[in-house]
Amino acid sequence: MIKRAEDDERVPITEERLDVQKRTSVQEATIIKEPVTETKTFEVPITHEEISIERRPVSGNNTTTTEKPVESKTEIKIPLKKEEAEVTKQPYVKEEVVVRKKPATETRKVSEEVTKEKVNSRDSTEADILEEEAL
């Protein structure tokens, strides 16, 4: 056991200790959807009516009692049927993208220099003094 005298001097010996902590940061993953335009071509059969005029001689009795020749310019309208192609666009869901997050753990080595104090003592004869361990 070591006796302590009242004139003992106490010298604190310090040392740095590493304290490693983790902090969480947030990053972003960006999913980009952008329009792509392409041309689609379809063949659609379209019908329409056309007129043809044929002149032929009248057969039989060619006299009329009700019809007189026109006295001025006369237009006769004949309706013709015509089909048109009509294109409409309708959006639909073609597929979907599933985005999942999963945790991944990795181990990293962290190195940092620490400082500590070491006590050496010598007397005037340059001889090492035996250090006593405290209880």
Structure description:
- This protein is largely without helices or strands and 135 residues long.
- 0% of the residues lie in helices and 0% in strands.
- The model has no long low-confidence stretch (mean pLDDT 85).
Summed up:
By secondary structure, the chain is low in regular secondary structure.
Itemize the secondary structure elements and their pairings.
Layout: no helix or strand
Helix tally?
0
Give the radius of gyration: 54 Å
Structural class: little secondary structure
How much of the polypeptide forms β-strand, as a percent range? under 5%
Strand tally? 0
Query: Which runs of at least 5 residues are low in confidence (pLDDT < 50)?
Result: none
Helix content: under 10%
Terminal CA distance reads 7 Å
Described by strand count, sense and barrel closure, the largest sheet is: none
Q: Indicate the overall shape.
A: rod-shaped
Q: What's the overall average pLDDT, rounded?
A: 85
